[in-house]
TrEMBL record:
This is Oxidoreductase. One of its GO terms (biological process) is glycerolipid catabolic process. It holds the Pfam family Abhydrolase_1. Residues 29-127 form the AB hydrolase-1 domain. One of its GO terms (molecular function) is triacylglycerol lipase activity. PANTHER family: AB HYDROLASE-1 DOMAIN-CONTAINING PROTEIN, HYDROLASE, ALPHA/BETA FOLD FAMILY PROTEIN.
Amino acid sequence: MSTPNSSNGHYAPINGLQLYYELHGNGRPLVLLHGGGSTIESTFGRILPVLARTHRVIAVELQAHGHTLDIDRPLSFEQDADDVAALLDHLQIGQADIMGFSNGGTTCLQIAIRHPQLVHKLVPASATFRRDGMPPGFFEGFSHVSLDDMPPLLKEAYLKANPDPKGLQRMFDRDVARMKAFKDIGDAAIKTIQAPVLVLNGDAEVVLAEHALALSRTLPHARLAILPGGHGDYIGEICTPYENNPTPSLVTAMIDSFLNT
């Protein structure tokens, strides 16, 4: 078993997992869900401290990611959504704001669909809900990838949380299999989401800006912000060149304003 990387880290027995989460700050609960192949730190390391100034942040590492070890059961966005719902129940939190980046953004949508009573406001960032939201050939490309193709910074972040190369390979294999099997979330399901939503996306990234626009127009109560840069640049994700880039500070203020009004 890996150990928490700070005094803020905890484990909860959730649906057969020892699910790792961190608590930061005070205020209305805000759940943060990392991207595929990622950890809390690699996705949200730059903006989490700022968000924690005005929120009680619950940052989660989902099945097979970071401190949370894999178990013998399917990995899916729906299962991740159910795990987050069970964690909120474990923490006796009846409703929370929820933000997810990339794969975490898709999980964010599934939480709102499957557990609408838990969601106060939603921030899906670079979230995919249909296969046509990605460039042609994107999903087919997962048939020809190996761990060598994974960004080194993401490998290092995983091994910092859990220094087990077999766990790293397992996470990679799990995420690849999930993306190869990705199925569209139907418009009818998206339209059931009644919470206010702030959709975020980059203008030059793997998730097409047109897809973010389509998501915002399918959701009943959504606003849209398209930011300059690539995948995760606007939140300072670990693989992006964000030194001296003011955009993450701007986006954090935008998120904070949306959640608090």
